[in-house]
Write a structure and sequence with these properties.
The chain is mostly beta strands and about 1150 residues long. The protein is built from one helix and 85 strands. It comes from Deinococcus ruber.
């Protein structure tokens, strides 16, 4: 057989007898089947025998171009005749296969134990890096004919790995029907290539992926203790649910009995130490650390730790190749004692109440103590035990001493892990020179294994140091009391009060500062200004002084001049100038805060009550056996205050405190002034408050039953602080001196409240004055009074005065009540008068301020009003009355007013009638506004200037109205009895506006509604010719008119009252009957003693009688007025 001109197989035939046929391969070809003799001569040419031979060409043949088969072409049918061979199938080349390996999680060598229908039949691949395929160099040739038989690839098991994927593709698929798809199936460790995918020219690449299985191994290490112990674990996320570390010795790591536990990729793993055999797991502390030994591949470089019995490896950490080892380290617990030692120093040599405090403790994370605890304390030189026998007050600790060594034992208490045991407080006596002493102590036992379970010897070299403690305490001079910021007092029990102690505002006593060296009932105490001395006096009337720095008591002297029936001294205080004050009832003494502390002779304090309160304030024992407790305190101005707590014989202790200021202390007869009542919390019975002292935060009072009050003098409020019935106190003291004084301020305002419209004040308006008096200080003001006068140019409106909105009765004769001075007070003040409470809300003027109002009416001609008030009160900084001036607001009235001139009284029986020209009768008047007037001018008036009835009006600014032009003087009007007569006026206005006018037609001295001739008639700037009718009922003769001009309508529609602008002009006019008026002609000149006369033609009538009167007008013109009997008249 020749392929591409090269012979690859030579075949001979069998003769069916002795000659055997053969087929031989050449040039690298492979024969897959030998030739079989055939004696069957029945085959025909071209038939396919059942036995066939295959020739596989070498791999070097990549394509077939020509194939030739040489054989005998003529069949004779005889022996040895040639049998024709032909190609049954023709393949271009044999199918081949390579194996590729990918490993995940680690690298390694992987073997393939069997390949069927292929040669060679085994293979091996070694990976160099994870997730990177490596192809074997071995090329496997598939021996089965294409499409005839499947090919299988079997992988040998590799420990720690799992075959997770396998598939093949045909690298020559583009040239056959396999294309680019993958194929092959996996069952266990066997990959099968289907027969259908085996083509004559296929080259298969089969990739097999192995994944390293993650593992978790448990390790156990025990620290501390002795012997072995077995520990049990529960597991989740692994192939085992439990594990055990059995018989684990101390200090040697032991692997769990499971060894390596396998995990599932992407599934979290949890390990929990669940129990131990003996001792129990609670006797250990646990620490876990999980480390991935394959972290270089997995990236799990950070160890996972836990301080509990459970550790969790997150799902994200369980990846291919993860190899965790989780080591549980259990440390045996036992009590770990320590001791803390403190003192209440620094101390002063000789002082009492010095203590050492020892606090045992057990470290957190250990076991509770068991058995007896022992504390040893070696006292330094000069410090001795302050008790005999067993130290009291230490619970189950029993503390005894021998020499300087104190031994305390406790077999009852246990100290839990992380807790402190009960304190041991050792009272000690202090002696020796100033310096620093160090006290050493130690602790042991209770199950603590250190130092063989016993307390080591205390001292500077004490070991182990954790069981040792020390404290250094300094000896110094006793510091002065911090009495400017803290309360101090005398305290004790119901039978005696001998301890001086500090008192917090939560009613808690501080340590005893000193004990008064007498068993008498001590009730009065004061502290020096520097806090270095304490003064006390008891029922023996002896003044005693305690020197704080030296811890010594001195007897200063005995009280003289006291009244035994007044009881024991209760009240004592020292002022900022160093003067001491002592009192009982209304008896009073002084003393000095410096040696020799001389007591003065007795003085008597007097008090006269003006408060108006019930019960009446008092501070002394009375003949009715009324009495008061209470105490002194002093302010920054050295004013002495007494806060008294009355006890009435008929009503017991009262639920209030009364405040008094005692003045005239340097004189022979000091006096007291009442300064306020402060209600206290009520109970049955009411507490008795005997101790009073001042701090910057307020005034404080202590009751006999431990009641504590805070008193705010500014707001006049009393606040109950916590009550401590064990604090039986009789007095309080400080060296704080608050600034307590009133500070009176006032404001005075005035406002127009009645009268004219608008904001301009004019004569006749009502003004309301408001005076607000405020106490902006820190103490109620007493003796407060106001004196104020009525402003000049005004008249007081009787009955208009108020105090805090309440009416104040006028003084005799309707005089404003504060003209002569009168007491004022805050609203709601319980006192009768004269007290002004402190006000802390300046924006609210109705709570504590005294508000006084009164009204006045502005008189005519007044251009401005003002006045000055005076306030008087007691200023405690001086003790004498103080005055302050009330500010003086000015109410300015408009001086630019124009008034009229018409008469204010008619003649005869009509004399009460008036045209209302004066301010007093609300006369017509206009505020002068530049450029708004009648005629050319307007002159300001202080009031109306009425002319007598019958006289002409000659005001020079009455130049805006002309009547019936050229009508003569006075202005001439005309009328008729037979009908209304039209008259003409020319009105000259400076600007456009409105005109109202009246003519008194019936001459009754009034401008009435029927007299109005113009009603808000519009006029323009310049001359305006207007007409009006004179009615037939008019009485001829001299009468008066009023013209009012304004720029707005409706503001001058009345003949009286104020108008905001414009002008009023009044005129005298003469009204003539036009039928009886003769024409004056050829009248002679007037001369002395000569009357110019002319006669009415009717005078010749026999039915009329002529009456004649000669008169002279104001300009000197002579007139002759004739009256006829029928009432007509004319001018002649």
């Amino acid at each position: 057989m020749s392929v591409n001109g090269t012979a690859y197989a030579v075949m001979t035939t069998s003769d069916g007898a002795g000659t055997v046929g053969s087929i031989a391969a050449s040039n690298g070809a492979v024969i897959s089947q030998t030739v079989v003799n055939s004696t069957d001569t029945g085959l025909t040419y071209g038939g396919n025998p059942t036995t066939r031979s295959y020739v596989t060409l070498p791999a070097s043949v990549t394509s077939i171009v020509t194939v030739a088969m040489i054989y005998n072409g003529t069949a004779t049918g005889t022996t040895n005749d040639d049998v024709a061979y032909n190609f049954d199938s023709l393949y271009s080349c044999p199918a081949t296969l390579n194996i590729a390996k990918t490993s995940l999680g680690d690298v390694g060598t992987f073997s393939f134990s069997s390949l069927t229908n292929a040669t060679p039949t085994t293979d091996s691949v070694t990976t160099a890096s994870i997730n990177t395929p490596v192809t074997s160099a071995t090329l496997h040739t598939i021996m089965s004919p294409p499409g005839s038989t499947t090919v299988t690839v079997t992988e040998a098991a590799t420990p720690g790995y799992t075959l997770t994927a396998a598939s093949c593709n045909d690298q020559n698929g583009a040239n056959n029907a396999n294309g680019v798809t993958t194929f092959g199936t996996v069952a266990g460790s066997v990959l099968t290539i289907p027969a259908a995918n085996i083509k004559g020219n296929s080259h298969f690449l089969c990739t097999v992926t192995n994944t390293k299985t993650p593992t978790v191994t448990l390790m156990k290490l025990v620290s501390g203790g002795s012997g072995t112990n077995t520990f049990n674990f529960t597991l989740t996320g692994l192939n085992h649910a439990t594990d055990t570390a059995a018989s684990v010795p101390v200090g040697s790591a032991t692997t769990g009995s499971n060894g390596s536990n396998t995990a599932t990729i992407g599934t979290a793993v949890s390990l929990t130490e669940s129990s131990a055999t003996s001792p129990a797991l609670s006797s250990y502390s646990t620490a876990v650390s999980c480390v991935d030994s394959n972290s270089a591949v997995t990236g799990n470089s950070t160890p996972l730790t836990s301080a509990t019995t459970t550790v969790t490896i997150p799902a994200a950490k369980i990846v291919a190749g993860a190899a965790y080892t989780c080591t549980y380290t259990n440390t045996r617990k036992f009590p770990l004692l320590s001791l803390t030692k403190t003192s209440n120093g620094p101390w002063v040599a000789g002082q009492s109440a010095a203590t050492y405090t020892l606090t045992p403790s057990n470290s957190a994370g250990t076991l509770a103590t068991s058995g007896t605890l022992t504390v040893i304390d070696t006292l330094p030189s000069g410090i001795t035990p302050g008790w005999t026998g067993t130290a009291p007050g230490n619970g189950n600790w029993a503390c005894t001493f021998s020499g300087q060594t104190v031994t305390c034992t406790n077999s009852s208490d246990t100290i839990a892990a992380g807790a402190n045991g009960a304190n041991i407080v050792l009272p000690v006596n202090v002696s020796g020179t100033a310096g620093t002493v160090t006290n050493y102590a130690s602790i042991g036992g209770g199950g603590d294994l250190r130092n063989s379970g016993v307390a080591p010897t205390p001292g500077a070299g004490c070991t182990p140091s954790g069981l040792c403690a020390s404290v250094a305490t300094t000896f110094t001079a006793a510091p002065a009391l911090t009495c400017s910021t803290n309360l101090y007092g005398i305290f004790g029990d119901t039978t005696t009060t001998t301890n001086v102690q500090s008192l917090s505002l939560t009613n808690t006593l501080g340590p005893v500062i000193t004990t008064i060296p007498t068993s008498t009932s001590n009730a009065a105490m004061a502290i020096s200004t520097g806090g270095d001395k304490i003064f006390v006096m008891g029922s023996d009337y002896i003044l005693r002084v305690y020197d704080v720095p030296t811890n010594t008591w001195t007897t200063a002297g005995a009280l003289t001049g006291y009244i035994a029936g007044d009881g024991r001294p209760l009240r004592m205080a020292i002022g900022p100038d160093g003067t001491g004050y002592l009192g009982m009832s209304n008896s009073f003494w002084t003393f000095s805060q410096t040696a020799p502390y001389t007591l003065s002779s007795v003085k008597t304090v007097t008090y006269t009550d003006t408060s108006g309160l019930t019960p009446t304030p008092f501070f002394m024992r009375t003949t009715g056996n009324d009495n008061t407790s209470g105490d002194f305190f002093v302010d920054a101005d050295n004013n002495l205050y007494l806060m008294a707590n009355p006890a009435l014989a008929s009503g017991g202790v009262q639920a209030y405190l009364d405040l008094f200021v005692i003045q005239g202390l340097n004189g022979a007869s000091p006096t007291a002034t009442f300064a306020g009542r402060f209600p206290t919390p009520t109970s049955t019975p009411n507490p008795t408050y005997a101790g009073i002292a001042a701090l910057s935060s307020g005034i404080y009072a202590i009751g006999f039953g431990g009641e504590l009050l805070s008193i705010n003098l500014t707001s006049k409020t009393v606040t109950a602080l916590p009550t401590n019935s064990s604090n039986i106190g009789t007095d309080l003291g400080t060296c704080s001196y608050p600034s307590l004084r009133p500070s009176i301020t006032s404001t005075k305002t005035v406002a127009k409240t009645a009268g004219s419209a608008g904001s301009t004040v004019v004569a006749g308006d009502t003004l309301t004055y408001t005076i607000i008096v405020r106490n902006a200080g820190t103490l109620v003001a007493t003796g407060v009074s106001l004196q104020d006068s009525i402003p000049a140019g005004t008249t007081y409106v009787t009955g208009s005065t108020t105090l805090n909105t309440g009416a104040v009765t006028d003084a005799t004769g309707g005089v404003m009540p504060y003209v002569a001075g009168k007491a004022i007070k805050s609203p709601g003040s319980s006192v009768a008068a004269g007290q002004l409470s402190v006000d802390s809300t300046p924006v609210v003027t109705t709570d504590n301020e005294a508000t006084i109002t009164f009204k006045v009416k502005v008189n005519a001609g007044t251009t401005s009003t003002s006045n000055t008030g005076v306030l008087q009160y007691t200023d405690n900084s001086t003790g004498t009355p103080t005055t302050t001036t009330v500010n003086t607001p000015t109410a300015t009235t408009s001086s630019l007013l124009d008034y009229g001139e018409a008469p204010t009284a008619a003649p005869g029986t009509l004399s009460a009638n008036s045209y209302k020209t004066l301010l007093a009768e609300d006369g017509a008047r206009h505020s002068i506004v530049t450029g708004i007037h009648l005629g050319a001018t307007e002159v300001a008036d202080t009031d109306g200037t009425p002319v007598p009835f019958g006289a002409d009006i000659t005001a020079t600014d009455n130049d805006g109205v002309t009547f019936n032009p050229a009508g003569g003087v006075p202005k001439l009007l005309k009328m008729s009895f037979s009908g209304a007569t039209t008259n003409t006026v020319v009105v000259n206005a400076s600007t456009a506006g409105y005109l109202n006018a009246w003519v008194d037609f019936n001459q009754n001295g009034l401008f009435e509604t029927t007299d109005r001739i113009f009603a808000d008639v519009p006029v323009v700037a310049g001359n305006n010719t207007l007409t009006f009718n004179v009615p037939t009922t008019t009485i001829p003769g001299l009468t008066y008119t009023r013209f009012r001009f304004t720029t707005a309508p409706g503001v001058a529609t009345s003949p009286s009252g104020l108008a905001p602008d414009g002008e009023v002009e009044d005129y005298a006019v003469k009204i003539n009957n036009i039928l009886s008026t003769s024409v004056c002609s050829a009248s002679p000149l007037a001369s002395a003693g000569l009357n110019l006369r002319w006669y009415d033609p009717l005078s010749s009538s026999t039915t009329s009688r002529l009456y004649q009167r000669v008169g002279t007008l104001s300009d000197g013109t002579l007139i002759d007025v004739q009256f006829l009997s029928r009432g007509q008249f004319g001018a002649g």
